[in-house]
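Annex B. Sample input.
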Amino acid sequence: MNKNNVLDYLNSIEEVVNDINLKIWSNPEVSGNEEYSANLYRSALEENGFKIVNTPNMEHAFYGEFGSGYPVIAVLGEFDALPGLSQNVDVKFNPTTKNGPGHACGHNLLGAAPFGAALAIKKYLEESKLSGTIRYYGCPEEETLVGKVKMIKAGAFQGCDLALSWHPMTVNSPINKAFLSLNSLKFRFKGISAHAAQSPESGRSALDAVELMNVGANYLREHIIDKARIHYTITNAGGAPNIIPSDAESWYYIRAPHRSDVEEITERLINIAKGAALMTDTQMEMEVLGGCYEYLPNDVLFKLTEDNMSQVQLPEFSVEEKEYALSLQQTIDKKLVNLERRKYLSGEKEDTVIFEGVLSKEEAFNVDVSGSSDSGDVSWIMPMNLFLTASWPLGVANHSWQATSSAGSTVGTKSMMYAARIFTGMMYDILNNHSLVEEAKSEFRVRTEKNKYVSPLK
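Annex B, continued. Sample output.
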């Protein structure tokens, strides 16, 4: 089989790949509860001759392995959904289940594309008799940003030579820079309850401590780097107004481009929390929920991704699909749509609904993937690539009902199969040119020589 034969085989099993994609989309499960999704992939992989290896102490984490010998290629799959973003395939807000979960980040697509590629490369390994091992990783809890961090700590990725990854978005692009490093912490304050009118002097308000901490955090924003972000919610504010709150809690995310920035800002925020406790004569406890790293680029794998994105067949959308996408796009603020058009189309084709080309290397450097992902941590333990495919219309944001709708539509399916073809082409090239692996690993060693990975989980 040559490369085109393998890609043809992948196209021939689209129905199999899309079946698992739509089953995941139709049965959304939030982080930590992915029982149906994980078991569906385990069964499908096992039925296709993959050996299943479960991750210790993680019910929904596993990998399916086929082949033997060098190189060992990991492809990363995810399948968790988001709370409150249920949606039918519709151009108006129309939840399948009121307040239910939905695949507003397209993880149904994200998991299915590497699954399809794994099946295609299995077929190739069987017929070519080449040395090589493919591992499909089922990675839960991405939306809480700790799943792969836990898997790394459990040793799930040991023995891999490199990893391949992607994400649904609004453009087709290889990615060289992505993800903000992050810490997630909760601050709990313990005070003394009392009658707020009769004896306020005997009380110590935990809520005052939370509010003073939040004021301090807001002043901190002026004195941190521009690209850092501090988000918080008050998760416990007390009860009735006439009772001085003895317990209160706030939950913080600290994000920045580099892990070292996050750690520095976190220490300053902890000092603010300590100060708030001193000012209110309360006690402060801190819980570190988790953290993750930024994406570490690899130029060798970036070039390999770029080549395959241009070589394999791009999606072709029908008139009906473009009409659906336009109707969906019209539910978005036109300013946001035009912002993406100017950013990715250089002022041309101002009526474009779905991005249909591939961004050049220079254009790709301007793509902003400023969320956070535990996939970044994988890139710090082995060479890893990252790419995006246009899975919803320009202007549609991840974590929106419009993204859920598109992820369950044929627009999403075509984007998913494009991603599967990219994965397949990359793995074919790697299996037939081991120097790609060695060059990627050599670059990785240079990039990490003085900056080793330290798990954010204590």
